[in-house]
Structures are given as structure tokens and as C-alpha cells.
Amino acid sequence: MSDWSLTSLRHKYLTFPTLLRSIPVGVVLAAGILATSWTHDLLSDHYDMVVHTYEAIDTTKDVLIALDDAETGQRGYLVSGDKRYLAPYEKAMERLHLLQKDLMTRISDNSGQVARVKALDVLIEKKLEELKHSISLYDDVGADAARTNEIGYMAVGTMDRIRDVIGEITVTEHTLLDTRHAEVEADEFRIRVVAIIVGLASFLTRAGVEMYLARRYRVIRS
User: Fold this and answer.
1) Residue 40 CA neighbour count, 13 Å, CB half
2) Which long-range CB contacts under 8 A does 64-72 form with residues at least 24 apart?
């Protein structure tokens, strides 16, 4: 009859060779799991930052597109007097404020970018006031007054300054993107290195244990 008592099981399975084979390798594997988990967390964080940077770049493009739409709609109205041309202008006005908030959220971790976006917001508000003022002049005074006013605004170059600031924001984000891509590549390399080290450490640990046990067995027999 088999003896399934705790004492019997301990003497049968928890022998010195078994423990020596299990514990060192288990420690190596546990350390490997922790190291692998840490490197995967780093990779995930850095990958999220890459995606975040792409989203910031896309948002700057959307801001510029919305401004162009607003300007196109306003000028179409000033030339034709047809209210239908104001549809792109009105839609852009609705989108712009949401896009501005979105852009500020996406670059909020970078103080230099925050300063640029704040400057951009001021310029955008100025440009929207210019567009609105020309439309009001058209409605209240006439086409000639509105067009003359618009020529004056074009000389001020608010839209050119907006493009310059958006360009600075985009260039900075592309620089960050290069850095973050490099971090992702470093993380991927680190994961491969950890996997190799864990595999080698496990093999060498097991080999060392077996060599020690073999030598110990020879000493006992002799």
C-alpha cells in the first residue's frame, strides 16, 4: 500500500538533488519574468508615446485644414455674396475650438510646445476675428468695403504667422517622434537581450547544478 503521508512525500520528492535542481533555476526564471515584464511595460509606454506624437501631428494638420476651410468659405462669400459659401466657414468655426483643446491636451507634457500652442491660439482667435469682421462689413456696408478690409488683413499676414507657428510645432513633434521611435527600438532590443540572458542563465544554472551533483555523487561513492 502506498504511503501518501506528508512525511513520506517529503522524503520521496523534496530530496536535496530535487531542491538543488529546482530552486536556482526557479530563481533565474522568476528574475527573468520580472525583467521581461519590466521591459514589456517600457515598450508599451514608449509605443503609446509614439502613437500620441502621431496624433499631435495629425491634429496640427487638422487645425490648419479647418482654418483654410474657414478662409475659403469667407472669401467665397465676399466674392459671390452667396450665403451657401459660408457653410465651410461655419463648420470650421465649430471644429476649430475642439481641435485647439485637443491639440493642447496632446502636447501638455512639453512646456515648449505648450507655449507655442498658446501663441497659436492667440493667432487663431485673431484670424477668426478678421474673417468675422470682413463678413460683417460685407453685410453692413458692402462688398467693396469688405474686400478692401480683407486686403489690409492679408498685408498683416496673420495666416502666414499661423503657418509658421504650426510648422514649428510640427517640426518639434517630428523630432520627438524620432526620439520615441529610437526608444521603442531600444526596448525591443532589450527584450531580445533579456530573453537570451534568461535562456543562457537557466541553461548554465542547470548545468552547474548537474555538475555539482555528479561530483558530489562520485565523492559519496568513493
Assistant:
1) 7
2) 64/162, 64/163, 64/166, 66/92, 66/95, 66/96, 66/99, 67/92, 67/96, 67/124, 67/127, 67/159, 67/162, 70/96, 70/128, 70/131, 71/127, 71/131, 71/159
At residue 36, the pLDDT reads 83
Choice between 219 and 178, residue whose per-residue pLDDT is larger:
178
DSSP 84: G
Exposure string (b/e) for 10-29, b if CB count within 10 Å is 16 or more?
A: eeeeeeeeeebbeebbeebe
* Residue 191 CB coordination number (10 Å): 17
Output the nine-digit C-alpha cell for 19.
Answer: 531542491
Total number of residues shown for the chain: 222
Q: Where are the beta strands (DSSP E) in 42-164?
A: none
Collapsing DSSP states into helix, strand and coil, what is residue 117?
Answer: helix
Give the span between the Cα atoms of 64 and 70, in whole angstroms. 10
CB 82 within 8 A of CB 111: no
* Distance in angstroms (rounded) separating the CA atoms of residues 188 and 180: 12
- 201-212 pLDDT tens trace: 888 888 887 787
Residue 56 near residue 103, CB atoms below 8 Å: yes
Q: Distance (Å, rounded) from C-alpha 123 to C-alpha 38?
A: 44
- The conformation of residue 109, written as its DSSP 8-state character, comes to T
Q: Which carries the bigger pLDDT value, residue 99 or residue 9?
A: 99
